[in-house]
Specification:
Layout lengths: L2 H5 L3 H11 L4 E3 H8 L3 H13 L3 E4 L4 E4 L4 H24 L1
């Protein structure tokens, strides 16, 4: 199960899904928008909320962002995402 299936297919949830699925990557805004399937202007509206919660870090010098794995909220989000994937794995195997 993916986050959009659980929480609704909003742009913010799709962005969180991409970030949670690959927390070690560094993203440009363009790549993140494309990966999440959202318009770049929409991503520009979402990023201040994520930065405000300290979920992402932004490097203005290089114009890239990454998941802030030092944040307790982010740790909880990533743990939830991994638990959701682990919960869904046996169901997918049984359906195969």
């Amino acid at each position: 199960m993916k986050l959009p299936n659980l929480f609704g297919n909003t742009a913010a949830v799709r962005v969180l899904e991409v970030l949670a699925s690959k927390p070690g990557l560094v993203w440009t805004r363009a790549l993140l928008a494309d990966a999440a399937g959202v318009d770049r202007r929409t991503l520009q509206r979402i990023l201040p909320r994520l930065r405000g919660l300290d979920v992402v870090r932004f490097d203005a010098k290089f114009g890239v962002l990454a998941v802030n794995t030092d944040n307790r909220l982010t740790e909880a989000l990533l743990a939830f995402y991994q638990a959701l994937a682990a919960y869904q794995a046996p169901k997918r195997a049984a359906d195969a």
